[in-house]
Amino acid sequence: MATFVDRVVLNVSAGSGGRGIASVHREKFKPLGGPDGGTGGRGGSVIVYVDAQMTTLLDYHHAPHRRADNGRQGAGNWRHGASADDLRLAVPNGTIVVSMDGEVLADLVGEGAEFVVAAGGRGGLGNAALASLKRKAPGFALLGEPGEEASVTLELKSIADVALVGYPSSGKSSIIAAMSAVRPKIAEYPFTTLVPNLGVVAAGASRFTMADVPGLIPGASEGKGLGHDFLRHIERCSVIAHVLDTATLEADRDPVKDLEVISEELRAYSGDAHIAGVPLAERPQVIVLNKVDIPDGRELAKIVREDLDKLGMPIFEVSAVSHEGLDAFGYALAAMIADERAKKPELERAPIVLRPKAVDDAAFTVTHVRDGAEDFYQIRGIKPERWVRQTDFTNDEAVGYLADRLARLGVEDELFRAGAIPGSQVVIGTRETGVLFDWEPTMAAGAELLGRRGTDLRVEEMERSARATRNEKRAEHKDRMDAKSAAREELWTERDAGHWTDPAEDDQEIAGE
Ligand SMILES: Nc1nc2c(ncn2[C@@H]2O[C@H](COP(=O)(O)OP(=O)(O)OP(=O)(O)O)[C@@H](O)[C@H]2O)c(=O)[nH]1
Ligand SMILES: [Mg+2]
């Protein structure tokens, strides 16, 4: 049996950023040019987006691993590395992106909806961008950040106005074929349809979409016969049409029983809490008695109508083969759908889904971890962890720059506050993947503060600055200016390289120094 493919696990890797370059400018008669190493390009992100032409996730079933290109490295003469193109993956309208923990990350409805599954890494700054008053000729550059990796489940919940539901072989695909331009597979064996077929039906001036859902059987709501996979497609439909087979040869079945069984499954299916809406069993429903071109079928249709009429649903006697009754069925559906659309116009608009942005990427935490023989200070935070990834640890200057950045963010202050002393073990990131090092405070003030541990450091700090001589103040001011120019430099370069996000937030970072 063919595999049902509207639920696939997709594994993606975004591209890494290109590394920055440390280079010294060379020109005739100017032996000592300044630093001119360019910044690396951004790695490509992996983005899924709605393409209305797509109807299945089959492509991703066949090739579930996708990778975006890396950014190129910078070069001398202030040349930036090229950024990689994003890898854009087309998915059908109605695709849901679910994390491996089952959290719905995005519900892609409507043309234009897209979601960044894995973000490309930023390019590393070249030494030209790292130069500042204090560091006139940096002999190092930053590494590009690795691209994100992610595994997500893509799940298709078809979006159609009408869902045709019913037992296998009741003629759902035949009806959609007779009423629209789609040509689904039709055969006399059950479970012919494995992926819903989506057709556009014209009834006079109105148009609506109809999905033929794979056949349902008793127990479908508990997952029998791939029931969950099938029921999932009905969740977004506004009208449910029960296709009943009036010519079935199975002894224990007849249209009334079939309807009871399928209705029970709809009631039992709780669906996805995310697609909140009217429970399936309470949506507008119609009954379609199919195969009345067969004399026995027409006769049975007449017999069961009496019972079915009591349910109060509109009933249509049709034949997908002779097309009898299909026009009336189409017009009635068009009218019902017009009513439904009028009730919920807001659902027609396509929301553009973007990756939720981190709340505060300058925030970090310092935790003293003591666990058996282990005793270390752990730093977690978006910025410190990113900076670590950008650092070339074989280059002392680069390591020094990292230390400066951490000090500027306030990481050192927090380490002091948490009780760290020179030589304490510090981990930035997780215990498994982070970097571990022996802490050497960069601040001269650190040693002073350290000698007085146990007293209120803020009071100490105030006293200290009151004591500071004019010279000290001047030196402090110069340091601050240096730091500002470095940060501003960084901001501009990131802007040039096209991977800055929110200027307000970056400005704050500078202002906060
Ligand atoms: N005589 C007659 N045969 C029909 C009619 N509609 C469908 N059939 C036949 O019934 C069989 C099943 O039709 P399908 O359209 O594949 O049924 P289905 O409900 O899509 O079945 P699954 O995809 O397996 O759930 C085929 O052999 C069709 O030719 C009809 O109106 N009259
Ligand atoms: Mg079918």
TrEMBL record:
It is an enzyme of class 3 (hydrolase). Residues 356-441 form the OCT domain. Residues 463-499 have a biased composition (Basic and acidic residues). Mg(2+) binds at residues 173, 193. Belongs to the TRAFAC class OBG-HflX-like GTPase superfamily. OBG GTPase family. Its cofactor is Mg(2+). This is GTPase Obg. One of its GO terms (cellular component) is cytoplasm. It comes from Demequina lutea.
